[in-house]
Amino acid sequence: MGFLTIMKKQKIKDKEIKCLLLGLDNSGKSTIVKGLQDITCETTTTTTAKEITPTVGFSIKSVTYSSYLINIWDIGGQKSLRPFWNNYFDKIDCLLWCVDIYDKSRINESMEALKRNLESVEIEGDIVIPVIILLNKVDLIDTMTDGNNNNNNNYGNTDFLSTYSFLEKEMVGNSKNNNYTIIQCSGITHLGLKELLVNIIIGK
Predict the structure, then answer these.
(1) Which of 49, 58, 70, 140 is the most buried (most CB within 10 A)?
(2) Cα–Cα dist 148/61, whole Å
């Protein structure tokens, strides 16, 4: 293999980013992946949540943005799969952690799962992985009518702000990994997804 061939392959490799997308079941991971595909392909179609099939096992999707090839490993969030999550951390450039911000009954469960996985990986490899926490489904909060919602699992803008502060404190408390970003987003409306792509590239 010639020197120029090696340099060309290295250049291509430098433009590739491997992202691991994790989160509890029904947090909207696959919808975010579909949304990223939509905005990078500049499609005009609108995706509904019912059209997205939850990931069973894992899937790998790729999007191109700003000359970077971003490979997203979307791993299922079912309880039976969570013990195997840390097997996918090898050689990743970024961890995307998806939180269903609309279901406050599972916020603690999600953050505990995130911390367990980060601690496990750091103990084994003594590494710090850039983390982007995706507060997904903010479109559901924005469309709520205050005072007319009787579901205690869901909440409005005031509770959203307190949850955002809680998540920041949780990550700051994880002193070994301060390389994190929190992004409000929606896989359905595509809110925050371009910001996500920019942050993935910045963290490369």
Answers:
(1) 70
(2) 39
Cross-strand pairs, 97: 22, 133
For residue range 45-70, list pLDDT tens digits in order. 555 555 566 666 789 999 999 999 99
Q: Which segments of 22-125 does DSSP mark as H helices, in order?
A: 29-41, 107-125
Residues annotated catalytic, as ranges: 78
- Counting every residue written for the chain, the total comes to 204
The DSSP code sequence of 105-144 is GGHHHHHHHHHHHHHHHHHHH-----EEEEEE-HHHHHT-
DSSP secondary structure, 171-189, as one string: HHHSTT---EEEEE--TTT
Give me the residues of the chain with pLDDT under 50, please.
3-11, 144-152, 175
Q: Assess contact for 140 and 187: CB atoms under 8 A.
A: no
pLDDT of res. 161? 73
pLDDT at 121: 74
Fold classification of 17-202 is Rossmann fold (3.40.50)
What residues does each domain of the chain span? 17-202
* CA dist., res. 96 & res. 99, Å (int): 10
Please, is 58 exposed, middle or buried when counting C-beta atoms within 10 Å of its C-beta (0-12, 13-18, 19+)? middle
Against a cut of 0.85, is the pTM above it? no
Question: How much is the pLDDT for 141?
Answer: 81
Residue 123: what pLDDT? Answer: 56
